[in-house]
Amino acid sequence: MKLAKAALLLSSASAMALAQVNVGEQKPEASLPFTMTTVATFKLPWRVAFLPDGRMLVTEKVGPVWLVSQKGEKIQVENTPAVYYQGQNGMHGIFLSPKYATDKSVYLTYAEPGDYGGGLALARAKLNVTATSAKLENYEVLWRQMPKGKGGQEGAQIAFSPDGKYLFLAVGDRQRMTPAQDPDQPVGKILRLTLDGKPAPGNPMAGKTGASTIPLIDPPRDTEAAKTTKVVSTYTFPGPNTTPAETWASGVRTPYGLAFSPAGELWEVEHGPLGGDELNLIEKGKNYGWPLVSYGDNYNRVPIAKPDSRPDLAKPVLYWVPVIAPGNLMFYTGAKTFPQWNGSGFVSGMATKALVRVIFDGHGGAKTAERWDVGHRIRDVEEAADGSLWMLEDADPGALIHVMPVKK
C-alpha cells in the first residue's frame, strides 16, 4: 500500500511538472515590497554583470560597455568590438568567466558586422580594471553565427554549467523561422560549447552532418509588424558543416533569458509571436517546436498549430497569453536582503513593465508568484553581492535601478 501511494504521489508530481499553464492574465500586486532608485542612465542598456569589487559592467545596445560604480560613476571600457547596431541587433551581453578569480576573463555576445548584415558573435577577453580605467585585452572571437544576415532576435544569452566547464549559448532564429528546425544551422538553437567556444563533448548531434547550402532571407526590419519573408539568395558552407556538433536543443525563437537554477536545471525564457511567450526547461536533444507550434499566432493573424497537436515536441512549463516580452531570467540567492525570495527566479517583462517572481520545485515544475508593475520596460535584472537587485530599463535613456526592501 505504501509503495502504491508513493508511486501515485510521484505520478502526480510528474504530471504537475509537465502541465502547461497560461500565466499571461496574471494581475499585478496592489503595492511594491521594494523601493526603486535610479542610479544612472544609458543609451539602450542591455545587460549588467557584477565584478567582485561591487562595480558593474553595463552594455549598451549601440555599442559601448561601461564600468559603473554603485553610485553611478561611469568609465567607458576600451577596446570593445565594432557592432552591427540596427533594430534588435547590437552589443548584447557581458558575462564573467567562471574562472574570473584567476583568469580575469569576460565573455561578450554581440552582432558582428558583415557583408549582408550582422551575425551573432561570442568573444572572450581579459578585463584590465583599475580605479580609473577599464579595457579589454587579448580579445578573441570564439564563435560566429554563419552566414551573417539581416533579422533580429539574436538571443545572445550565456549560462555557464554549474561545474564551470561548459558554456551554453542561446541563439535566436534571426526572424528566419524555419531554420530553427534545420539541424544544419545554429539559429533557433541552444548551443553547448567548451569555454574556448568549441563543440562540447557529449552533445546529442556530435559527429552528424547534413546539407551545406542554406537559404538567406530578407525579413522586414520591424519584427512586431512582420508579415512576410522571402529568400533572396543562398549560402554554401566552404567545407563540411559541423554546426550540429554544437547543438544541445533546438526549436527556440527569441531566447533572451537562459540560467541554471539552484537545483542545476537549465531554464530559458523566450518571446512568442502574437502571444505565447514561453518558460522552458531545456534538456539535452529536445525540440521546443518553433515555428511548428506555438501558443501564439503569426503577426498576420494566421494561426499556428498548438503544442498539444505535436506530442513529439517539448512544451513550455509556463506561457504568457497575452505576452510580457521577457527581457531576462535570473535566480535569486540573497538570503539576507530578500530572504523570502531565496531560490526564486525572476523574469523581467518589457511589454508589461513588470517584474515576475517564479517559484521552481527543482523537479521540472514552476509556477508564478507575484507580478509587480514597476513602470519601466525591464531588459535585465541581476543580483548584487549584498542581495539587492539591479534592473536595466529598455529605453533611451534607460535607467539603472537599484531595488531594496521597503523599510519597516
SSE topology:
Elements: H1 2-18, E1 21-22, E2 34-42, E3 45-50, E4 56-60, E5 65-68, E6 74-76, E7 91-96, H2 100-103, E8 105-114, E9 117-129, E10 134-144, E11 155-160, E12 166-171, E13 189-194, E14 213-217, E15 231-236, E16 247-250, E17 255-260, E18 266-270, E19 277-282, E20 318-320, E21 326-331, E22 345-349, E23 354-360, E24 366-373, E25 378-383, E26 389-393, E27 398-405
Parallel strand pairs: 1-20
Antiparallel strand pairs: 2-27, 3-4, 4-5, 5-6, 7-8, 8-9, 9-10, 11-12, 12-13, 13-16, 14-15, 17-18, 18-19, 19-20, 21-22, 22-23, 23-24, 25-26, 26-27
3D architecture notes:
This protein is mainly beta. It has 2 domains: 39-325, 6 Propeller (Neuraminidase); 326-408, no CATH class. It is 5% helix and 41% strand. It has helices at 2-18, 100-103, and strands spanning 21-22, 34-42, 45-50, 56-60, 65-68, 74-76, 91-96, 105-114, 117-129, 134-144, 155-160, 166-171, 189-194, 213-217, 231-236, 247-250, 255-260, 266-270, 277-282, 318-320, 326-331, 345-349, 354-360, 366-373, 378-383, 389-393, 398-405. The strands form 7 sheets. A 5-stranded mixed beta sheet has the order 1-20-19-18-17, with no helix packed on it.
